[in-house]
Amino acid sequence: MKKFILYIIIGAATFMMGYTINGLYSPDLSPVQPIPFSHKIHAGTNKIPCMYCHIYAENSRHAGVPNIKRCMGCHSIIRTDSPLIQTLQTLTSYWEKKEPIPWVKVYNLPDHVYFPHKRHVKAGVPCQRCHGDVANMDRITRETVSFGIPYVRVSPLKMGWCLECHKNEAQKYIGTPVKNGTDCWTCHN
Amino acid sequence: MKRRDFLKILGVGGVGTGLGYFFGKASKPPAAELIPYLNPPVDVIPGVANWYPSLCTQCSAGCGIHVRVMEGRAKKIEGNPLHPINKGKLCARGQASLQALYNPDRIKKPLKRRGDRGKGDFEEITWEEGLSILSKNLLSLSEKGEADKLYLLTSQIRGSLNKLLNSFMVSYGSPNYLQYELFQNKNLLYANQVTMGVNAIPHYDIANTKYLLSFGADFSSTWISPVSYSYAYGQMRQGEDGIRGKLVQIEPRLSLTGANADEWVPAKPGTEGVLALAIAYAIVEDGYYKGPDAASWKALLSEYSPKDAAVVTEVAEGRIREIAKEFGQTRPSLAIGGENLARYENGMSGLVAVNILNHLAGNIGIRGGVIPNSNGSRTIDFKNNIAAFATAASASKVKTLLVYDTNPVFTTPKAMKTEESLRNIPFIASFSSFMDETTAMADLILPAHTSLEDWGDDFADPSVGYPVATLMQPAVSSFFNTMGLGDIILSLAKGVGGRVKDKMPWNGFSDYLKDAWKEKYSKDKDMLASALTFDEFWNQLLTRGGWWPAEQAKVKAVAVSPKGIEAHISKASSRFEGEEKGFPLYLTTYAHSSYLDGRGANLPWLQELPDPMTSVVWGSWIEVNPMTAKKLGIKEGDTVTVESPFGKVTAHVYLYPGIRPDTVSMPIGQGHSAFGRYAKDTGSNPIEILPFMEDPETGEIALNSTRVRISRTTESEKMVKIEGSTKELGRNIVQTISPEEFKRMNKEVS
Asked: Which of B9, B10, B17, B48 to mutate to test the interface with A (most CBs of A within 10 A)?
């Protein structure tokens, strides 16, 4: 009997371990995108501001993925010789097929969470606070490498993480904790 | 530790870790894609709604709406706060019109009949094919010199579309453009014409009246302009100047409005007109009428002494005199005659009697009374009605019928034989978006847009004392392969060619609409003053939702003369078909608050909306007084056969204390045999068992016109309703206060 309880305890502990490992190291933290777009070149090297492309962040709950016409607005002039932009399965090919690029979502919140970009951007939370150092990422990822080991995530997107900021860190941006910031209906509505 | 235990622990640990890992994976939200716009529309921000002002077409009240559109999809409809008719409010039918847009039973493509007529066997065709079939038919008709045998039957369309349809029919050479709906207020229009000489329904200023005498007008759920009247009723009850208005409701069956009234007077069905005249007589006799022609009014009304009327109407003489006193003395008071009164066989004369009441109390042309509307330039041909059309059709005088947004097969009594006469027409084309009973009879269906996808405008009738124009703009692009009715007509004009084409050079209905408004703009000095250019004015129209003056015009008084009015007063109470012996109960029908004349039955939101009085959801019921039910040995939920001399339907019994024991009542709207999955085969349609009885002067079909007998069948079922009991059982849920008490409290507070 004693042994049975021990097995249960060990089983439960390892179950939690497996669950955590999945949470931390699951490969969908940096999904492969349909075209090899690099944030490092755009936001890093060329220092294009976030909201030049993610134009709705200030006005809508969605930050907005740039529409293809906006991409082509630059790329019909800039780097027209680059094979990565001009060949098959790249930007131009989508534009010529008149099809949108099916980007894979990296920061995917469940349906029961209402998250408006607008309020957070207007409050002065820098984009990097949640999205990490995008300017140094070729492909968008939620992994961060410390001491050569990729294990600390940029944003866990768990409720505790949200509330922590609503209660404490918010004071850095707006001077007080978020008003009604821990009410259920603030986010679950 | 034994080697065996070590291995066991290792095994348990491994399995646990694996399970944990896969559980974590499975509990994550599924991978999602982010699809950007290729080339975004200028006014769209994903996640932010656009609100487009437009027009509600669920009934003919003409309310202004705001449609909430996100990324090109309509999501919600609310009232337009600037609009003078509904002032930002909207009824359930208006809210549910969203489901007309997304309805899975919409006709998604043009259809051509394949099998026998009325069997619902259609094949899909293209728009080019459909339009050419119809224009060929019209061409061959005019070549044979039978252009006048083309009939166009529509709902009550006003505004530019009406003008377009009219000019199409006139230039084609047919005088037969006919508008028909079940609730068209023809009796009211006629009564107002003969008493006040006004060709439009006046504005009943309920908001500012202090005593409202309603003859069966269920204005808070279905009568003419329910949102506008309900809002006004609220203002009347609030008593903004310290006096709370009083409402007296005269009707055999307690409606939602009746339930809100201070007094309910259940006069005998069919005698309300006599009661009105008796009240009028009492007003004159007791000296509340101060006009110089009091003597001639008294002479005219001499047959209607309250004493005699008390016997006929079963309302005590004292009560008649009391109502006369209050109505004659309260300033301002207002009498209105609603559908219950209007839909007797001599309903028009009852409404004349109501107008006499208003005149005697001095209510016509004053604030808080009857305010005539000035936009009554139209003429109404009362002879050109649905019965005349049915007669023409059975006499083979109709060769081609075009029908839009109206359903006479459902809304006329079986005794009128509308369906048979439609079978006599060689070619029927329908522009309906839904497969209703009339459209199912069609040979060709060219589905038109719903109102959220189309252009249009509307001039509210009745308006609110000054003209109100509402603009309809497409809030979303068309959802299926449909076409606006205006565009269909313009393409037909091109197909028919000749004079019709010359008269209609427009490329699309939106051009026609804009031109029509340009003309209005160039002629109206208020419109000219409001904007520098027409484009600016047009943008203003689109953003505000229409055009209405900023201030209310001065009210003009209209007198009613006793001369000549006698011809329009009916001496007797209304006739009912069926002998009292065989058919002991009066049947009154009323428009269901969500289906109206049946057009709302295909919208599931309306189907699951409980009726406000009975709280019944889905299905049809018959309201029977508990005393009558006890006598007949029936209980709630029993299925009964309701039989008139003209047919029978079945319905479930709902025990309703708010109805006279000699009367039963059924709501109109259910009992469709077509009209999509939500409407089909639900409940029963009481119009089927009505006699074909018209008002002799207006041609309005009487709805309260027969006696019935009800007999129990063996079946019974539990009513689907949300109320448990009709009584509050001392729970103090409904707290009431008398007007006197209210006045006293008001004084104490201020």
From this structure: B17
Contact criterion met (CB below 8 Å) for B589 and B622: no
- Taking 3-state DSSP, the helix, strand and coil percentages for chain B, each rounded to the nearest 5, stand at 35, 20, 45
Is the distance from CB of A110 to CB of A116 less than 8 angstroms? no
State the DSSP code for B200: S
CB pairs under 8 A between A and B: 127
ipTM rounded to 2 decimals: 0.81
Q: Which residues contact B32 (CB under 8 A, 6 or more apart)?
A: A104, A105, A108
What residue type is B707 in one-letter code?
A: R
Please tell me the distance from the alpha carbon of residue B409 to that of residue B418, in angstroms, as a whole number. Answer: 6
What digits encode the pLDDT tens for the residues B629-665?
999 999 999 999 999 999 999 999 999 999 999 999 9
Q: The tokens of B706 are what?
A: 């027969």
Kindly state whether B47 is in contact with chain A, defined as any CB-CB distance less than 8 angstroms.
yes
Residue B18 to residue A100, Cβ atoms within 8 A: no
Burial class for B303, CB neighbours closer than 10 Å (0-12, 13-18, 19+): middle
Q: Cα–Cα distances in Å, from B320 out to B218, B343, B633?
A: 21, 23, 35
- ∠B698-B557-B249 over CA atoms, to 5°? 60
- Going from N- to C-terminal start, the domains of chain B cover 111-183+379-472+484-525, 187-371, 585-716
**What CATH number is given for B187-371 in this structure?**
3.40.228.10
Interchain pair A11, B15: CB under 8 A: yes
SS3 (DSSP) at B400: strand
Q: How far is residue B469 CA from its own chain's centroid?
A: 19
pLDDT, tens digit, 9 for 90 and up, residues B340-397: 999 998 889 899 999 999 999 988 888 889 988 865 556 677 888 888 999 999 999 9
CATH class of B585-716: mainly beta
Tell me yes or no: is domain B111-183+379-472+484-525 CATH 3.40.50.740. Answer: yes
